[in-house]
Design a protein that fits this description.
Oligomer: heterodimer
Radius of gyration of chain B: 27 Å
Distance between the termini of chain B: 30 Å
Largest sheet of chain A: 5 strands, parallel
Helix content of chain A: 40-55%
Distance between the termini of chain A: 15 Å
Strand order of the largest sheet of chain B: 2-1-3-4-5
Largest interface: A-B, 18 and 22 residues
Shape of chain B: rod-shaped
Helix content of chain B: 55-70%
């Protein structure tokens, strides 16, 4: 397998999910950083270039949709996927408007996330 | 719409039945207040009632009071038929719980118009309570999806990770696959909950209980 060293940022307020995303590092051979909030994520984005973002929508403080808008404002080429526990159709449209490439509803197979990240050049 | 005609006079009952059925109502007949009360205890009994004032035993006003006191959580529209026309009587009739009244002998066009008012009010109430129930279901579904999908993600993600660490012929693999199958089923269920657009129920435990029919309530 052609191992491209991708840099991923996963944002989720659930510690068990952050740990799980970190474990992807070992599986896919990528660098995976995690943040528990949008504020923490924005701080990381300011001095690191990530290839792919996995953002939970329901975050304390700034929510995932606003976070996506802010990331896209700084890094217009960023590829962001929403990973959400609850998505009404209204939410889905809002996600696409905010700049998300696609969205996944939890529980999502990790292999799906890996596949999505692999598609990013 | 179903309507209950409550009148002790067989001739009036027959005439009313014929006229109301001609106007498209389904009729149920009761020959006095007591019979009406008993019929009302049955499931799906009519919500629209045409009640004669003067009856032996439980009369019209007494029946109205009983309905308003003992079935106060349910909506009924009661149109009282009365030969009394003093202001005092009419006030008493309305205060006993009737929604409207019509004098005897009645004019058919007026009766039809007054019954249509009742039908319209009941339909509005019905629609409004259906919307309220749906709103409640949607809020509950949202909370369930939100709270359940998070731990489901944890179970499914970590199980998937474990799968990559066990060999193809390891018997544990089958157990892990079963866990993932279970998670997938729950995931399909929560995803259906997110697509609820209607309020549909189904009987449960031999019809003793009524529960939301998730398949019917969710949009395809």
């Amino acid at each position: 397998m052609n191992v491209v060293n991708k840099k991923i940022l996963a944002v989720d307020d659930e510690p068990a999910i952050r740990t799980m995303m970190k474990l992807l590092q070992r599986q896919a051979g990528w660098q995976v950083d995690t943040a528990a909030s949008a504020e923490e994520a924005l701080e990381m984005v300011s001095h690191e270039n990530y290839d792919v973002y996995f953002l939970d929508l329901n975050l304390p403080g700034i929510d995932g949709i606003e976070l996506c808008r802010r990331i896209k404002a700084i890094k217009p080429d960023a590829v962001a996927y929403a990973v959400t526990g609850y998505a009404s159709n209204l939410h889905k449209q809002e996600c696409l408007n905010a700049g998300f490439t696609d969205y996944f509803t939890k529980p999502v197979k990790l292999s799906e996330l890996v596949k999505a990240a692999r598609q990013v050049d | 719409m179903q309507i209950m005609i409550v009148d002790d006079d067989p001739t009036s009952r027959t005439i009313l039945q014929a006229v109301l059925e001609k106007w498209g109502f389904e009729t149920m007949l009761a020959s006095d207040g007591e019979e009406a009360w008993n019929l009302m205890q049955q499931e799906n009994s009519p919500r629209l009632l045409l009640v004669d004032w003067m009856m032996p035993g439980i009369d019209g006003p007494t029946l109205c009071r009983k309905i308003r006191e003992e079935m106060s959580r349910e909506s009924f529209y009661i149109l009282m038929l009365t030969a009394r026309d003093s202001r005092k009587d009419l006030i008493m009739g309305l205060e006993s719980g009737a929604d409207d009244y019509i004098g005897k002998p009645w004019d058919n066009e007026e009766l039809k118009a007054r019954l249509n008012v009742g039908r319209r009010i009941l339909q509005l109430q019905n629609e409004s309570s259906r919307r309220q129930r749906l709103q409640g279901v949607l809020e509950m579904a949202g909370a369930v999806c939100h709270e359940l999908n998070q731990p489901l993600q944890v179970v499914s993600g970590y199980t998937e990770m474990l799968m990559t660490e066990v060999k193809e012929d390891d018997p544990i693999r089958e157990s892990l696959e079963k866990i993932l199958e279970g998670v997938e089923k729950m995931g399909n269920l929560t995803s259906k909950l997110m697509q609820i657009t209607d309020y549909q129920t189904r009987g449960y435990l031999d019809g003793k209980l009524s529960i939301i029919d998730i398949n019917k309530s969710a949009k395809e």
